Amino acid sequence: MKAYKAKKIISAVFIYLELIIVAVIIIYPILWIFGSALNESSGISRSSIIPERVSLENFRKLFTEFNYGKWYLNTLYVAVLTMLFSIVIHTMTAFVFARFDFKGRKTGLLSVMILQMFPSFMSLTALYMIALNFGMLNNLHMLVIVYVSGGIPANIWLVRGYMLNIPKSMDEAAAIDGVTKIQLFFKIILPLSMPIMFFIAVTSFMGPWMDYMLPRYLINMDERRTLAIGLFDLITGTNADFPAFCAGAVLVAIPITIMYMIFQRYLLEGLMAGANKGE
Questions:
Q1: For the chain, which terminus, N or C, has the lower number of CB atoms within 10 Å?
Q2: Which of 211, 206, 204, 249 is nearest to 231 (CA)?
């Protein structure tokens, strides 16, 4: 019995030690970025967790010496539109695959699954040529179109798996009452699918904030830049300013952190429930 208790204590000590190490690895860079953002110095060599002299100068420089405010609004605009269109298109498409039997249904689902296997960067050249031919370079709506369409394969399977858990007897009862398919979607399926919709909303909203490759290919005008491009140039361009980059990174984390805090319960519930891909 004593040997069992000693083994259990040792096991618990190792578990907590591992958790502490992981927490330090994750938290230390965050604290270092936050401390550097408040540091009055202008170089990376003097950045630290505890600033020598606390100052908001780096935050001021973002909006006076750089075009950070415009970058922020551009990214917010793209993120909100991506979130709204993703919710509508992904949920309605998943509803069709989950509640209707039609010719080519399984083939369509298989095609959607295969599309998930290809990395997104493979299509960058094609996307650039499409944007060039349609005059959509330096157009934020082009980013929205790509983000929404790029999320279709994964989200359709996720939302469909969630909707398959909703009993189809509800569809039959609604049909007896004269409810149309559109009414069925908006009045019954949609309210019951709120958890997975919150998950789609948050993940779709987060995507554009720090995506770098696509905006770099399609955007080259400073007033149309997103945050990822602007912040990257703050540490690589001729006017590199690492503390200002840290201040910008802190501001980027604010909307994402708020959304996680508000919708954390729905995120976990939606992800776990949507994991069942059904038939």
A1: N
A2: 249
Burial of 178 (0-12, 13-18, 19+ CB in 10 A): exposed
* pLDDT tens figures, 209-231: 878 888 988 988 888 889 888 88
Q: How sure is the predictor about 42, in pLDDT bands with cuts at 50, 70 and 90?
A: low
Q: What is the pLDDT of residue 43?
A: 60
Task: Report which DSSP code applies to 222.
Answer: G
Residue 255 in tokens = 């909307």
On whether the pTM is more than 0.90, the answer is: no
193/197 Cα distance (integer angstroms): 6
Contact present, 58 and 246 (Cβ < 8 Å): yes
Tell me which residue of 148, 143, 140 sits closest to 201, measured CA to CA: 148
Sequential DSSP letters for 233-278: HHHHSTT--HHHHHHHHHHHHHHHHHHHHHHHHHHHHHHHHHT---
Taking the C-alpha atoms of residue 185 and residue 96, their distance in angstroms, rounded to an integer, is 10
